[in-house]
Please model this.
Amino acid sequence: MSSLDMSEAIKMLANEKNISVDALLQVLVEALVSAYKRRPGAAQVVEVSVDPYTMEFTFTAYDVDDDGNWVNGRDDTPRKEEMGRIAAQTFRQVMSQKIREAERDRKFEEYANREGDIVTGIIQQIDKRYTLLDLGKVEALLPQAEQVPYEKPEPNGRVKAYIVEVRKTAKGPQIVVSRTHPGLIKRLFELEVPELVDGVIEIRACAREPGHRTKIAVASNDSNVDPVGACVGARGARVRQVVTELHGEKVDIVPYTDDPSDFVMKALAPAKVKEVRIHEDTGIAEVIVPDFQLSLAIGKEGQNARLAARLTGWRVDIKSESQLAEEESGDYAEGEWIEVDGQLVWQPAEGGDAISAAEAGYAGVPTGAIDGAPAVASAPEADVPVDAATDAAQAAEADGVAAADDEGTADGGD
Model:
């Protein structure tokens, strides 16, 4: 084969394997080094250089002295007939191996910088532990933990997923994708909303319970563009495409604002909020809603309150107007728990008769329960009102909805 033919062959092979000519030449050099060392009487160290234009190879052999230095450099370029059958076979094996390694490295580099991107794959294999997606030149792993509950992957079905990790393995890149990651929501909207890609509007926050509901907060960098309307689209066309890809998961889009109380109020949509009181010292947002809006504000099993808390970063404490009125009516007095004849009693600070634990609704409280407790606390008087959180839970249960927790409070932490 002439040098011109060999140069063309190198270029054709590089195009076929989708790797650069320089990378392929480096593979060729490494294969020649391995083949050279199979020759009888081969030097301890050899360097192979190649002229990319003439495709001429030069072998420079060295000896190694006692200090590990390369010495006695000399030209030891063998003739083709001197390489021998074993050396030629070694060359072919090493060449094939190095090309496979170069392909794996190229695939890894292609996807290593795509963490946080969205890909479309075809479902190839379904297992209890994971689902395998074909991305074309590589495969992606969708673990069970990253799959949405109630979604049933179907073989040969197309699905979009979010790249969470790219690992380098001996068999090539291992791409781990997710269908539950909040980043999937952002990427799906970017596919439908060009204003997001252009930077005219942006998604400031996202809270998601996969398979059930998602809340996103959007802001506009252009006063002439409505961020919510841009995401919803004409007659809801844009958001409908996202919901379809999520298999019916509900998506709430609310405008972002720097005012914490206003942001919390909007985050609790579709509930109508009367007032929001921000307590920065405790990180609690106290939300006051009309009595008939309490169940809607809390949401099914506390979902609306939880998502609003995660979206805003505040602990959301929801109260109805009647609950707030009871708390502010003065039905609670200051005092202290004291022990009388081995029993706990409440001694009001303004004086008067002590109230037993049973009368105060604390029957069965052990004597040691007051150890380490503060001397002064808030506790009910003789006519103990029904706890506000209990009212919230009962009201929610009456509408088929449970409160977020026993206190009606949703924590902003995940």
Q: What stands out?
A: Residues 80-112 form the longest helix (33 residues).
